[in-house]
Structures are given as structure tokens and as C-alpha cells.
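Data deposition worksheet. Section B asks for the primary sequence of the deposited chain exactly as it was used as input, without tags or linkers unless they were present during the calculation. Section C holds the resulting structure in C-alpha cell form. Section D is free text for depositor observations; keep each observation to a single sentence. Incomplete worksheets are returned to the depositor.
Section A, Depositor: J.P.
Section B:
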Amino acid sequence: MFNGGSAQRLLASMPPRLAGLVERQAETAPDRPALISGDRVVTYSEFWQAIGRAKALLTAAGVVGGDRVMIVNENSIAAVTFIFAASDLDAWASPINARMSSREIDACIAYCGCRIVVYTIGDSQAASDHAARVQARPHDDPVFGKVAFGPTDTDARPEPVHAEKDRQTAVLLFSSGTTGAPKGVMLSHQAIMYMGGNMAELRNITASDVFYNITPVSHVIGLGAMLTTAIWAGGTSELVAQFSAANFVAALTADRITYVMGVPTIFARLLEYARTNSASLRSSRLRFIAVGGMPLDLTLKAQIEDAFGLELGNSYGMTEIAPVTRSRGATIGRSVGVVQPGIELRIVGDDGNDAAIGQKGEIWVKGPNLMLGYYRNEAANNDVRRADGFISTGDIGSMDRDGNLSLVGRTKDVIIHSGFNVYPVEVEAVLSQVPGVALVAVIGRSVDGNEEVIAYVQPAAGRQLDIAELDAWAKANLTAYKRPKEVILTSQLPIGPTGKILKAQLKADLVKAVKD
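Section C:
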């Protein structure tokens, strides 16, 4: 069993830098497949050699340790290669999703002061469009394919370089959650490797496992919980640039994959596809499915487990520290499982003291995978840092006697209606139980010194919903102050690149509607 002592062993077994994991596999199993993209298969030996060539290209472009290298990408061999190459030069790899707008990408480039931007033009039309905008210089490689290099910023200032793996930034990931402007999260080589090694050991990942990586590698799940986990164990990652339910079912039917993890909305789309196309989600080879990144509705959990014939793993974490918990077999209620080895967690009440068993409080965490901080944002750092090295997650939860953590909501998402706290996740869970409901998002609407509960509901494909039925269900299952003042039916909730519902957009739409 992996425990605290094993956590120390895990830390001691890490190479000095993230790319050292690839080098290990290239030395011990050079011909084993490391990456798959479409019909391309790259062995660990080829992967390691490609990293070397990418390092040479970056060095020739003027990249030095401490520089920021932005990688505008969708999941691809090129994206992964340059993440490992840049970080192995002690530069900070900063992968961002190519499907972001030009305005958003330009803001990220300016924010982090990149030395250079790499565009994965061979695998992403969106990246190619961004590259054309700046007349990026193309390059073709036999393994990672076509990329393009933007102009070198000779005025970029490198950050200090540290020999220690727990002090040197490996990646700069942008985190906006669903509520605000992006923040650059600095993650060390140790933090990324701890994610991978921890998950590999706890979930008994082996070299025979094939991960279906549908989460962007610009996201902590895609990079840490998926890609690095597979590499740690010598497994294979199938990199999926854009999710397609049909392609996923084809991979299942071909018994090609063993492991998949994504946000709950991805699994909801798979269930909908299976229903409308009479498709099976069973596979003799698939052995592990898991969700993370957003709250999991219990009704959806049961539906997923029934469709796949597997227990659904659930975990809790965030870009700043992931994973924090994991489920161990069947979970109870809204539990996201027990605290991961090596992680310390507190439930802190309003009085600043630890909350009693079963009582709600703010979740504070620390561990070997904790971020180094938010880049160039001391106000945000000061906002989350707490005594003894903890950070406040902004999430509200409770712990039972067996150590199971349950999430209640986010402090910033709490709706205060007539002086009572309403947690959106609870209302969403209730409305999701109505037959024909695909997705629910609950937000607050400010009115005359109060807040109203507003529920957006997306019907499943081919289903029609009756607002009166939803209101009646809420009345039967929620106390009066928690019931939605208004239920808004929508054919499509706004979904971000990682599959999260964009509640900030819904709130903006509400404000606009009031002004209009």
C-alpha cells in the first residue's frame, strides 16, 4: 500500500527534471510505444531523441534557463515534446489551448513575457491560424511533425534557475477556473512528477496500460494525472486533439485503451451518444475510468458506472495542487475520497480553528505537489497563502470519521438568499435527478440587496423538459430558500476547452439581460 513513507520514497526516486522520466524509459524499454496520435506511434527512444532535437531548436532561437516558452497547441506529439524540451532547458513550458481567442492568447503572452511562442501547426488548425497571424517560422520534424516559431523576444528577462527539483518551475499553467481572469500557476518539476508517480502507484499502472488522453495537456489533469502518470509507469498515451464520442467508442470497440479520465461533462456526452446511437460503452480491456475537475452529480455517477460496467474513480484537486484526494472503491454520497499520501488537509471553520467531524469549513491543503505560486501576482498569492505552508482552496467541505472528504461548494459560488447560504452544487444535484436533464448550472442573481437562485438546465438530446415539472421537483426536494427563483432552459450550456461549464459567462448573460 502506498502511504506516507512511500511518498518519501517516491520523492527520492525522482530524476532531477521532468524529462528524466522519458530518458529512463528510453534506456530500459526503447522500443515500447510512448505516444500515439492518429496513425502515428512514437517509441520512448524516438520520444527522447525528439526532445533533444526540440531542445536544440529552442536553444538556437535564444531560449535560456528561466525563460518562458509558450506552446499554443491542441493535444499532439509536438505539444508534449516541446513541454518536456523547454522544461529540460530549465525554461518554463507554458502550454495553452489553441482554441482560445487571439485576444486571450495575446494577453497570456504579454502576461508571462515569453521568449518565444511555439505553434503546433501540423496538428491544429487553430494553432496554424494563430501562427499565420504573427508570420511564425515553420519547421518540420520526422517525429513531432510541423511546428512554427514566433518571433524571439530579445527583451524577455529570464527568471532565476534553481538546481532543486522542488524549486525550479517546470510549467506555467493558466488557471481561471470558471469565475475570473487567468492566473499563471508555477508548478515545479517535483510537483508534476509527484502527480504522475503518485497516481501510477496508487492505481497500479503498468507498461501495458494505454491512456486515452482527452483532457488538454494545457490542463493539470491532461499533463499530470494522465500524461506523466503513463510515462512514469512506461505506459502509452493516445493523445486526442478534439474529443469525439464516436472516436472514443471506436477505440473502446477495438479494445485499444485501458484508462480514461475526464470531467463529468465529457462522460455525460458519451452517455448521450450511446443512447442515441445504441452504442455500447463496455470493453474487455478498459479497466479504469475516473472523473475530476468539477463536481460529480450522483445520478450521473450511477449512470456512468452502469454504462461502463466499472466503478467510477473520483478525485479532488486543482491546478494549484493536484491530486488532493482519490476515491478508494465505492464512495459514499458526495465524497471525493480520502486524502492522497503525502498531502496534508485541514477543514477550517469561520473561527479559524479546525472544524469538527461532519462540520463544514474551508479546505486548506499543502503537499509535495503544491504550486510555487502565481506568477507576477502577489495579491493572488497573499489571498490564498495561510500559516505553516497551507493554501486556502476556496472550496467548502467536510470530513467524516473514516477520512472521506465531501465537497459542498466554493466560497465564491455561495449564494446568500435572505441570509441563508445556498450551495449551487446541492441544487444542481437535485435538478439533475429529473429524467431528461443532461446538465445543470446554478448561479446567483443580485436583486435589491439579496440574491436569487437561478438554474440553467440543458435537456438531453431528443428530450423535452417542462419547467413546471422541474419546479415541482425542486419544491419536493429542497427547502424553500434553496429553490430556484427561475429555471432557464437552454439547448447548450457554455462549455470551456477542458469541459467545465462557464458559469462566469452565464452570470454575464444575466447581467446583460437585466440591463437590456
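Section D:
The CA atoms of residues 469 and 506 lie 23 Å apart.
The radius of gyration is 23 Å.
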